[in-house]
Amino acid sequence: MADEADETEKERKSVNFPDHRRNSHSEPEPDQSKCLGKTRSGWMQVSCFFFVYYVCVMSFFLGMLSIYFNNEDRFGPKYQSGDGFLGTPGMNFRPRAKEGTLIYFTSDRSSYKSYIHSLQLIMDEYLQSEESFLESNDSASFWKECSPDSYADSSRGCMVFGSNLTSTDCGQQNDYGFREGRPCVLLRLNKVYGWKPDPYKSEDELDSDMSQNLARKIKSWPSSTGVGDLIWVECYGRTSADKELLQLGVKYLPYDGWPVYYFPYLNQFRYLQPAIWVKFSNLEPYIGVFVICRAWAKNVSPDVHNSVGSVSFELLYEP
Questions:
Q1: Ranges of the chain with pLDDT below 50
Q2: What is the DSSP secondary structure assignment for residue 235, as one 8-state letter?
Q3: CA geometry: angle at 228 spanning 131 and 161, to 5°?
Q4: Max CA-CA distance within the chain?
Q5: Which of 107, 135, 244, 310 has the fewest Cβ atoms within 10 angstroms?
Q6: Interatomic CA distance for residues 114 and 316, integer angstroms
């Protein structure tokens, strides 16, 4: 019996227990060095992933830029409208009120001081450009002196002589007519790249809805003026009452429109927009008048509501 007990004791001692039981009281192996919870190899994997990711993103971005610049015309729009509705330039006027289109003024100079300031800024640009043009050699200038035989081209636009716009009727010396209650409004066509006006050449080309007064002007316009064909302008009242108030009281300076040799606009450096004055000389005090000014040419399709080929504003004078 004793021998059997010894044998059992030997077998019990020789049993191999699992490692976790045998080493349950042994010291743990030290962890590898970590930074912010990641080992050196973990950080290398993350760095490689983001490096490849950002290289792909930058390659895609640079590829898109390359495609864009290789297909871009740096001097003008790639797609242009024709001579229809979308190709007709809009018209703008100065001075403008801070809000709305009402030009309101009184005999007090403070009421129209801001108008004078905005007009003078525009005139200063024309006058300074003219001074620079006259002092420089024509071939070295940013502009050229245009005529019916010399139009604006892709390299240079036409010089707009500010001295022609500073007349005795509309100038700083009389506060642009506001001092007298006979204001001057500056009109300009908006810039539309590549648009060329198609002026009226004969009586048969005149529009049927054109006023008789404007038709007479066009028929009697002398070709010997040195100005050539015009994009004609006519300002009139919206209602019959407005038309009566403006009758025979509207004057255009220096011409009744813009000479066609100022066009086309081709994004010329320091391009100057041609301008004309419209002087209203018989405003009735305390009576507002709604004015519509419209450009006339064969390829001008005006839309009064959207200010295409036309512009509208109100005038109100209170002495």
A1: 17, 20-24, 26, 28, 83-85
A2: E
A3: 10
A4: 149
A5: 135
A6: 16
Nearest to 232 by CA among 256, 211, 250, 200: 256
Q: Is the peptide bond before 264 cis (omega within 30 degrees of 0)?
A: yes
The size of the chain, in residues, is 319
312 backbone dihedrals φ, ψ, rounded to 5° = -135, 150
CA distance 39 to 208: 87
> Could you tell me where the DSSP H helices lie in the chain?
2-14, 19-22, 40-70, 113-135, 212-220, 240-246
Contact criterion met (CB below 8 Å) for 248 and 282: yes
pLDDT on residue 224: 60
Alpha-carbon dihedral sign for residues 169, 172, 177, 181: negative
The pLDDT of residue 24 is 47
Question: Where are the extended beta strands (E) located within 163-205?
Answer: 184-189
β-pairing, 143-144 vs 157-158, is: parallel
Cα distances (Å, whole numbers) of residue 156 to 147, 151, 197, 289: 14, 10, 18, 40
Count CB neighbours of 318 within 10 A.
14
Q: How far apart are CA 148 and CA 151, in angstroms?
A: 7
Question: What is the pLDDT, as a whole number, of residue 263?
Answer: 93
Which residue type is seen at 149? D
CA-wise closest residue to 184 among 295, 94, 288, 286 = 94
3-state secondary structure (DSSP) of residue 27: coil
183: closest CA among 256, 114, 115? 115
